[in-house]
Task: inverse folding
């Protein structure tokens, strides 16, 4: 094999596996994000629930809303390092977010990966859907209720552990792998959820303000390398 062909193969091989991490939060400001906070409608401050403090992205918890990436993504691994800064409470990472305020005039169309204390890794379906094994056991529903993403549906899918979080004040690492119509979630190294047949495969990423102050020191996306 001549030198030019060898070099071509090396370059091609490198390009297939050159998936470099992307820091969605730059540690300085909220560039690349925009907030959707209903209580801020018509007001000058459009980010009342999200700020940067001491190099951390902070969800202040209220008023309720979402901080959403300007760009949409598919086929990636998302690493989020977070902690409840004071009292444990509620928050979440929304995957494949699209149309805003489709549920309760607040939540964008998406699949939520729950961060609520003692429930980290639950899925919540928001006008989208995803399936897991043991649906009847892990997706509680009332008689006559359907699996789905509307107000009337059984939207919550319980995680596999309910014990993978660190004590309040310590940093947790949530890893979310999105591959086609699959979503795989690890919390502090534990597999906590694995869903398939999602009704959506790309979209924006959102962080919630949902009642509790949460600090984020890393929000990093790594595109999945092609085979």
Result:
């Amino acid at each position: 094999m001549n030198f030019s062909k060898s070099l071509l193969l090396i370059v091609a091989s490198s390009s297939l596996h050159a998936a470099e991490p992307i820091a969605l939060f730059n540690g300085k400001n909220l560039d690349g994000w925009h907030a959707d906070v209903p209580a801020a409608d018509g007001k000058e401050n459009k980010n009342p629930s999200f700020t940067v403090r001491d190099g951390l992205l902070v969800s202040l918890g209220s008023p309720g809303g979402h901080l959403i990436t300007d760009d949409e993504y598919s086929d990636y691994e998302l690493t989020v390092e977070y902690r409840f800064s004071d009292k444990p409470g509620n928050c979440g990472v929304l995957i494949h977010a699209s149309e805003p305020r489709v549920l309760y005039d607040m939540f964008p169309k998406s699949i939520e990966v729950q961060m609520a204390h003692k429930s980290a890794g639950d899925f919540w379906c928001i006008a989208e859907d995803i399936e897991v094994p043991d649906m009847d056991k892990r997706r509680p529903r009332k008689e006559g209720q359907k699996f789905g993403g509307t107000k009337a549906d059984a939207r919550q899918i319980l995680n596999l552990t309910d014990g993978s979080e660190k004590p309040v004040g310590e940093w947790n690492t949530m890893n979310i792998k999105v591959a086609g119509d699959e979503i795989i979630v690890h919390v502090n190294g534990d597999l906590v959820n694995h869903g398939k047949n999602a009704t959506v495969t790309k979209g924006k990423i959102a962080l919630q303000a949902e009642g509790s102050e949460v600090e984020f020191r890393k929000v990093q996306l790594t595109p999945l390398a092609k085979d």
The chain has one domain: 22-223. The chain has a mean pLDDT of 92. The longest strand covers residues 214-223.
